[in-house]
């Protein structure tokens, strides 16, 4: 029999059910579900975090950029949208059920994750000197290599481009750390490699530049000149994304304003008359513009196509690219085809992936130096002359005596082709042993097959050229590098403490082998009009070859500690052993430590308009082994013979031709860095400032020894110099938005001083060309005679005396240069030379402007270098009048009728007014240049969606369009390879003006 419920219990049950029903109604009334989408200026964003403020409720956007989330109170709730690299946004729901958000790229997101070598860190936790360059800023510039596009985008980075098709830029990070001019270390997806002309910049996802010892010490011996870490693009979860970018540009080369035949002949005759020499019989009926003959409009084509996608457990990225550059000099060209595959997959605690890149490049190299040839050749010389072997004009002793090179002739007679096939990549595996413990092993391999050919056809390109038959040379080389690295990473966080411990081991084996062959008198095929360019033709064979190898084994560790985002510490230790040194000096040890204090986290810090304030400092040691593979060993010539015995029989022998230093050891760079990072006004304004001091000890230099010591094979290496580099860096960015108008301004400043503290071996100074490198002074200071105007009358010559009454320049004439007699001995000699200037800039600046309005985007980058004194080598030829070269148009040499000029009288065959070791050729090398300006427009979604395209953008841009400078040469931003003559423009290839039209789209 069932029990009957008592009335009281029934009433209590009904009351409870009624109350629950009422509460559910109230909850149903106030709770709602909000949906929408998140995008940026380029399209949808996947993986954006969407959180209800003040709760643990959150979700992320799916592969279509959409989200849906339950909100407890639709009237008062606030949604927080956050994504790495974008400004966080808070939006009130205010009763709405659909919210669509457009995120804005952050100018300097402190939560951004950056790669720092064998790991990552939040940007705000960095304790060392690291510059972050956005991949988009690099890729918008049309350049062959990554380095060319970095100029002005980061502090402490000095870049000088090559200009020629396939040329590679020089890059220095915080000055010259040694006397070899080595480029920084490149790390691409963890692989120690290069990012030269066979690397496709379109594949870059991020770039970090490690500038001080604490940041770079994890790479030890290879990081002395800084480290550039490049991460290439990876696939993301979602359907396949297809991206295409295409850009086509026209290039033009700067030109001299040179005299034509009428003006040239007038000044040339004047120079001969002043010297009392019979005039040349110039062909006044010829007026050749050699720049028109040697130069052409260049063209750049850059096309890239990529496919990417994946799931939560696997991803892929596949890309292909073509880069072609027809040079602005005739018979120069560069082509590159590249292919990349990056994949990654995870199964449980196991992850495996690979990064593979293949490229094929071909360069038609420039012969001679047309930048100089165009003014060394006279306008009175025709391009073609049937009376000369080969049919080219290059003057003659009676009518045009010059030793200039016909640029058309040498371009057609010589063919230099350099081909390269490079394969590089790595396979990695990760094992998540524990939640806080991960093991990773990487196997990387790189190989390059190089093929160089040189064909010299019959013919001549310069006056009095020695006869050489048709020659064919072929050179083949193979480079390979095997890298194995293993790391164990431990992460642990508890309470306010966070630890990251990394230990690892690395081994790299590098080999390079080369063979070459040459034949002379190769045959011409009249039926095809070409030569037989194979080595089984011709005669007088010559062969050569060599093989090198070096090994590097390393052990390293890093400890990162973070207390409450307030106190940060980073300690690194690395040991490297290299085969380039003798047994007793193979290993070097490179420790570093850095710390930071986030003042803004302290309780006493109550400044509302400062969002973040961090002070940091670091100290550490790096090393360098930048010498040849076997320089600690003697070089033996085994081809020597000697006649011995009564019958004078020839016996084989061996001779040591270069002295060796078995005590060679590591260069060591000891660096200090002090920095400050701050963010203001809700992170709209950010500032980063650094002071650094780097001292390189035991610099590896080639020590000059007399040949009489038996040193006949080149100067041996020694550890002989100490160099100091110090400077200041400042970067500031301001970003804001006014309705649909967004903008950002970034300015950076770098100052750098270098000083030679010691040259070693009792040396106090060394002279190279017009420079002196002296203890206590910067490298390569200008050391020349000083000029003091022109003599206007013979009485001025007679009255120019020293304190003893001796006429200083007794042979001078009116119109000649007056030189300073600095030692007062009454003569102009090398003893009168003085240090008169520095080739190093006092400071360099970069200015980057970005703005967008609805579908339009505008960008402009400026770079400036100020304070350097440079040597204008081309002007020392076009204004010396002592030999037969062309002159600058409008030049006004001194004459009695034209005394108001700073150009001396024209005088042929004498260096009286044309000495190359005077301050006459030194100029102010300061400049400001618009490196890039561009505007783009994103096509409306409603227009392109019907074709299945999610985004499309067209762009128009220009590079090197405007240059502000007092320098009278072609380009104040020139480069050369001489460490001691960095400010010498020897006729360097200039930067080119480029105008490009581009199209990007994805679907």
UniProtKB/TrEMBL annotation:
Q: Which SUPFAM superfamilies match?
A: Carboxypeptidase regulatory domain-like (SSF49464), Porins (SSF56935)
Q: Fetch the PROSITE patterns from UniProt.
A: TONB_DEPENDENT_REC_3 (PS52016)
Main location per the UniProt record: membrane
Which residue ranges run through the membrane? none
Answer whether the UniProt record assigns the keyword Transport to this protein. yes
Q: Carries keyword Ribonucleoprotein? A: no
Keywords from the UniProt entry: Cell outer membrane, Membrane, Signal, Transmembrane, Transmembrane beta strand, Transport
Identify the Gene3D superfamilies for this entry.
Carboxypeptidase-like, regulatory domain, TonB-dependent receptor, beta-barrel domain, TonB-dependent receptor, plug domain
Q: Where is the TonB-dependent receptor plug domain?
A: 123-227
Q: Where is the signal peptide?
A: 1-30
Q: Which domain of life is it from?
A: Bacteria
Q: Do you know which InterPro entries this protein is assigned to?
A: Beta-barrel_TonB_sf, CarboxyPept-like_regulatory, Plug_dom, Plug_dom_sf, TonB-dep_OMP_SusC/RagA, TonB-dep_OMP_SusC/RagA_CS, TonB-dep_rcpt-like
Would you identify the family this protein belongs to, as annotated? Answer: Belongs to the TonB-dependent receptor family.
What this protein is called in its record is SusC/RagA family TonB-linked outer membrane protein
